[in-house]
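Lecture 7, part 2: worked example. A protein chain together with tryptophan.
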Amino acid sequence: MAKDIVCSGIRPTGNLHLGNYFGALRNFVRMQDEYDCFFFVADYHSLTTHPTPGSIYADARTILVQYLAAGIDPERATVYLQSDLPETIELYLFLNMNAYLGELERVTSFKDKVRQNPGNVNAGLLTYPTLMAADILIHKATRVPVGKDQQQHLEMTRTFAQRFNNMYHSEVFPLPQAVGFGNDLVKIPALNGSGKMGKSEGEASTIFLTDEPSVVRKKIMKAKSDSGPIEPNQRKPEEIENLFTLMRAVSSPDTVAYFDDLYNRCQIRYGDMKKQLAEDMVAFIEPLRQRIIEIGADEASLRRIIDRGCEKAHASAATTLAEVRQAIGYRH
Ligand code: TRP
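Predicted complex, written out as structure tokens:
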């Protein structure tokens, strides 16, 4: 039986952080052994909200370097820039012909963007889901690792795929499944005591894979805590639970158990706990940060990786597009 095909991408909006690592990246790395994987940087999608990005290639390169540093292997997976695969755009055009205004207007992410920025409701923003569907369907992907916020887009991808198949009496597209980030998913909280780590909670609440040890230490020491438990075995408030979650992600189980026990006996000192967490966090981030520096400095290898990824992505896309054009009735 043929291997399942996996496809996913990340928009280039800056350095990746611990939340991205325990969400997308670690799962991409795990999937590359089991499936035929396509991992790209969604640098076309950027224009839907930032029409004049300024440094789009540098931003896309940043993500690519961080993919590689996290362990995505360009020998096993196809790693490429979305903008190196304009075949996606031809498929996007075909899908747009059968995507209806009403259904696009009902998409939650679209409505959010309209509310946030009513001055830039462009057609690209409206058709964000068809571009995303094109990313996925161009490789006939069957599994798409995404977070919860992308589930609706995945549902639409299935709708567009099914509609295309019906409309042209073909079976060109398999219907892709959204796969969550696994049962062992660690949701990395922000350091300010609420919400998840990421841009929206601010840079001081986010640990980036590129943060130097002194920066990591400072951020952790400033993380929100409280004045401590007053009763044994008391339930942990959110900000304290968050510290433990971060510790479970990067420290040894013994360390977690040690501080958990202190908490339950009302003997915990958060300063000590944070110092330990900071050191374990540095030990976790530092090798990643070093690899990012190393890989980012080797322009020649990076070029080769990008070119090779582009080539492999083209080959996959060409096969699909030939079938798509034939199904519609174009010369192929
Ligand atoms: N929309 C996704 C996000 O913001 C990025 C993305 C674009 C994507 N195309 C994709 C994810 C195709 C998975 C598959 O996170």
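The radius of gyration is 22 Å. The longest helix spans residues 299-328. Keep this in mind for problem set question 3.
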